[in-house]
Each structure stands twice: as structure tokens, then as C-alpha cells.
Design goal:
about 280 residues
Length: about 280
Amino acid sequence: MTQTFINAPAPTTTTMRPPAPPRRWTKPRIIGNALVALWAALILGLVFYLYTAWDPEVIGKYAPSYWAGLKTTIGLVTASIILGAILSVPVVLGRLSKNRIIASIAYAYVYFFRGTPLIAQVFLIYYGLGSFKPFLEAIGLWVFLREAWYCALLAFSLNTAAYQAEILRGAIRSVPLGQWEGAASLGVSKFVTFRKVILPQALIVALRPYGNEVILMIKGSAIVALITVYDLMGYTRLAYSRTFDFQAYLWAAIIYLILVEILRHVWDWMERRITRHLIR
């Protein structure tokens, strides 16, 4: 009898969830739905405008120019990001240095390039360095700095290096101090510890801010059209000046949006791949 009682199945009870309360049309909900409807109407209006204003002759004439400008934009941003990443490493080391002079110089560099507009930096390099033409010719740099593309590359590299340095510095600071202490207790040098222990962990933390910086650089690269660099925006201005058709800027905006969306999905994929060992 006792054995039967022990082996008897436990009674099952089912708990019914209470019904969800009805959603009322509160003021925030009404405003939110109205804004969504407004955005939907704007998008539909934009699509309708592009459909009615479609001109195969104009599209066929200026589409190759847009493609050439897009390649210039991608090349300029890619080169700037790579050079900025290389330059950001000594800046980070300077910011983390215990030497007050080196740390102050690195701080002044970051403070200037993060505290002033990118367009002002481009103008300072493009127009300002022209005042030192004899000196630049004497040291052999004028052959590069007389070209607007190289001036834009220099300005973008210096600017993004300051931002990337702060991103990397914050990521390094986020790594627990115990990582340094554990490596030191094993007799590992600081350089090896930084390269093989600290930096890989810091790059995981810095991956998302790096993606934001690349996106900002892509959108900010449009200002080089003001110094005669024919990037995507440069050819867009050229197309508008010859056709006076507003859809020239709309197509440029769509191309920028598509480029940013592609980059965002690529960055999401990279983050999932790098952090797959952290998923439980």
C-alpha cells in the first residue's frame, strides 16, 4: 500500500493565464501611431515621386557618374579608416602613458580633432597648407598635398584616429585589471600581455563603436565635394547643376542609406561571429 502510494503519479494542475488587459488608446499611443502613419505617407510619397519623375535618359546618362563617385567614397573612407586605425595605436599608448608630457600631447591631439568640425579640419588642410607651398615643395610633399583627394584623406585619417583612439582606450580600460595581474604572475611581459590577452578582449568591446565610427565617416565624407573631390556627393551636385532635377539628391540619399544598411548588417554578422563563444 505504501509502495503504491509512493509510485502514484502526482496530480497535475493547470493554471490558466488571465486574459491580457485591453489596450486603450492613450495619448502616447495615439501620437506614436500618428507618427508612424506620417512616416509611411512620406515614404509612399517619395516612392510615387521617384516613379513619376523617372527619366531613363537622365538615369542612363548620370548612373555611371554615380557609380564612379560611390567607388571614390568607399575608397576614401576605407583608406582613412585603415590609416586612422594605425595612427590611433600610438595615440592610445600616449593617452595611457604615465609620462605627463606624452599624455598631454596625446590628449591635446584628441581634444582638437574631436572638438572641432570635420569640415573645418578639411578646409585647414586643403587651403591652409597651400600657404606653405615653398616649404612643402622643398621636402617633397607638395606633389601629394596639391591634390584635393590626398588632403581629404589626411584630414579624415587624423580625425578618425582621434575617435578610434578614444574608442580603443575605453575598451582597454574595460578589461579587468586581474587580466594584467594574472599574466604578470605567470611571468608574461607587458607587451605580450597587451597583444595576446588585453587587445583581443578590448576589440570585442570596441567592435560596435568602431562600426558607428565607420558609418559616421561614410556620411561625413560628403563634405569633400566642397573641395572639388568628385565622390558620390560631388557627382550628385554636378548632376543637379546640369538638370536642376531634385531627384538627383534623392537618389544619392538612397545610395547612402543602402550603403549604411549593408555595413550595419556586415557589422552585426561580425559581432555574432566574434562573440559566439560568449553565447550560453
